[in-house]
Amino acid sequence: MKNILKNILSLPIIFIMFYLLYFVCDIVFGAIYHYIPYFLIAIIPTLILWFVFQYLISQYILLKFISNGIYYLISHFLIIAYVTIIKCYSCLWYLQNRKAPLISINLQKTILIEELTLGIIAFFIIIYIWKRFYKQQIL
Q1: What does each C-alpha distance from 86 to 5, 36, 70, 74 come to in angstroms?
Q2: CA distances from 35 to 25, 28, 103, 134 (A)
Q3: Would you give per-residue pLDDT tens digits along the chain (139 residues)?
């Protein structure tokens, strides 16, 4: 019963974690891209920051809550997929509905690509953390 309660309490923490990661990494990406308008130069520090934050949060906070590796995989995959879809949908909605955009179309498309890239990287980090901490429990 205690493990079930801890697993359920981890869901809002995971959700908030991914939204905060997106928020911080979008700001970092935007600041770097503002001064150096090259996607590859701006995305590399953002990806490193994403990896470090997601790994540290998962290692020090989430591993105390989640007791099962399968639950870890399912919950993280579902939440990151939901958050990534919502972020990309909002970018596409903004691209479609703004007649006089406040941000250039090129920058909006770059931000969409950046958010998709962060979502894909998050999936790989989830698998890496699962292999590192939970796979031994299953075998």
Answers
A1: 27, 27, 24, 18
A2: 16, 11, 15, 41
A3: 777 888 888 888 889 989 999 999 999 998 999 899 899 999 999 999 999 999 998 888 877 777 778 888 888 899 999 999 998 888 888 778 876 667 777 888 888 899 999 999 999 999 998 888 877 655 4
Length of the chain: 139
User: Token pair for residue 28?
Assistant: 């970092």
The count of structural domains within the chain is: 1
Cα separations (Å) of 9 from 13, 14, 52? Answer: 7, 9, 23
- CB-based contacts of 16-19 (< 8 A; 24+ apart in sequence): 17/54, 17/57, 17/61, 17/62, 18/79, 18/80, 18/83, 18/122, 19/83
Q: pTM score, two decimals?
A: 0.84
Q: For residue 92, give its domain range.
A: 2-132
Alpha carbon distance 101, 108 (integer Å): 9
